[in-house]
Amino acid sequence: MLRADVQVRLGTLDLDAEVDVDDGEVVAVVGPNGSGKTTLLRAVAGLQPLDAGRIAVGARVLDDPAAGVFVPTSDRPIGLVFQDHLLFPRLTALDNVAFGLRAQGLRRAEARDRAAGLLDRVGLADQARARPSALSGGQAQRVALARALATEPQVLLLDEPLASLDARTRLRTRAELRRHLATFPGARLLVTHDPVDALVLADRLVVLEDGRVTQSGTTAEVARRPRSAYAAHLVGVNLLRGRASGDRTVRLDGGVDLVVAEPVPAGEVAVAVRPQAVALHRARPEGSARNAWSARVVGLEADHDRVRVEVTAGSAATVVAEVTAAAVADLDLVEGTELWASAKAVDVAVYAL
Amino acid sequence: MTDRRRRGGSRPPWALVPLAAVTLVFLVVPFVALLQRAPWSSLGDRLTDPVVTEALRLSLVSAFAATGLSLVGGVPLAWMLARTDFPGRSLVRAVVILPMVLPPVVGGAALLFAFGRRGLLGGPVYDGTGFLLPFSIWGVIAANTFVALPFLVVTVEAGLRGADRRYEDAAATLGASRWTVFRRVTLPMATPSIVAGAVLCWARALGEFGATVTFAGNLQGRTQTMPLAVFLALESDREAAIALSLVLVAVSLAVLVPLRDRWLAG
Fold it and tell me: Which of A46, A72, A147 has its CB closest to that of B174?
């Protein structure tokens, strides 16, 4: 169980974030580059001392400047998988995994024996004598994981675990990593800027922006109700801001009125709409899609057989509609096309900020 | 087509070629001259002359001893300079480099004032124990170390600065103590620079003249190293000087050539 209240000033970064991870839980810290993700991990690992705050694993305090407590990295019950793995280049895969056991004072033969077992568990028994330079990215990642787990830490940290892999390896390695992570009983904290990694690997997300936690919740919660533009982009939904009047209507900043399924209390609200729920029409639509507004196309972006069409929503915002390539052709869409956009009331999520 | 392009890519700008050629000639001609003047017929006798064998033995022993001492003391000093931040670090670095810049004779004189019979440290030591550093093989080794050590420290410091410190972080997260991190991660990463530094250090020690002659004197069989013997022979017996020089060239090549590709090129 990890309890981290991390306050660090480092250059232009002003990090002040609280992250708790229970045993058996996988938490992903997501955020743009420079938001302080890696510094957060380094602080938990003891590679970056806190300026203020407190880090504890279970009942054991690891860093607490106010109390004068600082446990050095080598004495922390924490394993860390680095972004580019950092396998020791002169050691074999086996000796990389055995390194921590040797450092704990185990005899060479015994350390190698246990390391061999760990390599076997990640399916790399046949690569035991390979040097890191001879391993593929995915294999190196698994060796790094086995190495971090060899010393049986209580907390496992992963820094951008899949970022250094190419797209194809990534897909397979992600599934493997999910399986291997599931076998580790302790707390797992990973940082990533990749939404898919976060959604696939984690139970809970912590969104970190500019050194502050802007949202924290289960992946489903964040996906349904993102609280910041970054989080909305991360989970791929349109996030708009508006004002609820107290009944079932919301006026967006910029002047479009939307009807929603459930009554919302009056006040400032966030409105989330998935791109797939936004429909585009040449003429004003009739029938069930009651929320319709006059819009203009401001951008088009192809994504396989789908096209992401950015259209205006009032004068202050835009939303992305995801439609088929055929629909783009039928509607004869180009930048500047005037049309109608609509979203069903049930597809519009409204929540207080 | 691709072949021509590839050759074209490695073709130097024309202006560089004559300059490179002149430089090469300047480096090679002295050795050719040395070989050309070599007394080949009497070489065997000259090389087994006790003056030569004694000088060679002294040179090799003191150069290797100086390299060993420089490694033992210089690697920790390089680590301090590269990895720690202490007040006056730039001053310390300047002091370390000083023997590289100083005329060796000045270094030898400074060593005398420090470790001579009436020197700052040598005086009390002599009064207490009767041990005297100058004018002994220990003096030769001290002079060699003083002059050659900076080459090792500077090279290893650069190597340590260039090494990726995150490997040391990784070792720490695996529970390695600072000493284990140094021994099993830092040292292996710095090995190429340590080898390169040791070779430079050894070569500098082997050729040492000024500090040695000032601090240790020129006592045949006790402190007369090869360079001193060559200098002395030039006055009296030119052919002996050439023979001695050839031995030094051969020894230097024997050490440098095997190391060249593996450690010194990269």
Answer: A147
